[in-house]
From TrEMBL:
It catalyses: Cleavage of a beta-linked Asp residue from the N-terminus of a polypeptide; L-asparagine + H2O = L-aspartate + NH4(+). The active site is at T87 (nucleophile). Substrate binds at R115, V116, G117, D118, T138, G139, H140, G141. One of its GO terms (biological process) is proteolysis. Has both L-asparaginase and beta-aspartyl peptidase activity. Does not have aspartylglucosaminidase activity and is inactive toward GlcNAc-L-Asn. Likewise, has no activity toward glutamine. The keyword Hydrolase applies. Keywords: Autocatalytic cleavage, Hydrolase, Protease. Heterodimer of an alpha and beta chain produced by autocleavage. This is Isoaspartyl peptidase/L-asparaginase-like isoform X1. GO terms for molecular function: asparaginase activity; beta-aspartyl-peptidase activity. Belongs to the Ntn-hydrolase family. GO terms for cellular component: cytoplasm.
Length: 229
């Protein structure tokens, strides 16, 4: 029998490792999502390390906010293409065929208080299924959320598309239907990797055996042999 488990947190503050907190939600609670003060309180009970605001507020973030406030910019800008804050995601399949998807984000500059993006919502910012694949996305979170991008990618893979083909179909479909841009990293249950983004850039990397592949711009795929490093 297959068991689908998920854990996520949203609206948390000063957590050094939010993905570790999300995993504890999955493993130690009967719930799928915890938010705000409740999630922070749970993290403290679990003994997770915390950090002060001073270590979380970067100069780049302050400049981005100042620019937003002065110029009245659109908070809907896809920041992976604009050099602002970003999202960190990882996908993997282990030797037993179990899949995992992990994603962490700081949101978008200029977001409203209380805004929840795609990252903590299963099927939007990330999703995995041992029978199909694992996906993690980044980009304009509200568009990803509206189009359920991660779930669509898995659906297209289940229909027979490759990881890259499925990602391209879902992300280009999102841009056509709801606007904005995004990217995704995907690994199938057989270990096939897919990388696609329709934003100007997205940093990505993966390892298969001793070979490291990475890039940041469209069409870029740099390979290094770690055995010779």
């Amino acid at each position: 029998m297959w068991c689908y488990v998920t854990g996520s947190v949203t609206g948390v503050k000063n957590i050094l490792h939010p993905i570790a907190l999300a995993r504890l939600v999955m493993e130690k609670t009967p719930h799928g999502i915890l938010s705000g003060d409740g999630a922070n309180e749970f993290g403290r009970r679990m003994g997770l390390p915390q950090i002060p605001d001073s270590e979380l507020i970067t100069e780049n973030a302050k400049h981005a906010l100042e620019k937003f406030l002065c110029e009245g910019q659109d908070p809907n800008v896809t920041e992976i293409g604009g050099g602002g804050v970003g999202t960190v995601g990882a996908v993997a399949v282990d030797a037993r065929g179990h899949m995992v998807s992990c994603t962490s984000t700081g949101g978008i500059t200029g977001k409203m208080k209380g805004r929840v993006g795609d990252t903590p919502i299963p099927g939007s910012g990330g999703y995995c299924d041992d029978n199909i694949a694992s996906v993690s996305t980044t980009g304009h979170g509200d568009s990803i959320l509206r189009y359920c991008v991660a779930h669509r990618i898995l659906h297209y893979i289940e229909q027979g598309l490759s990881a890259t083909e499925a990602s391209q179909k879902a992300l280009d479909g999102m841009r056509t239907r709801v606007g904005k841009t995004a990217g995704a990293i995907t690994v199938t249950k057989c270990g096939k990797v897919g990388v696609y983004f329709n934003s100007p850039k997205m940093a990505w990397a993966y390892i298969r055996g001793t070979k490291l592949h990475y890039g940041i711009y469209p069409g870029q795929d740099i390979e290094e042999d770690l055995a010779q490093s």
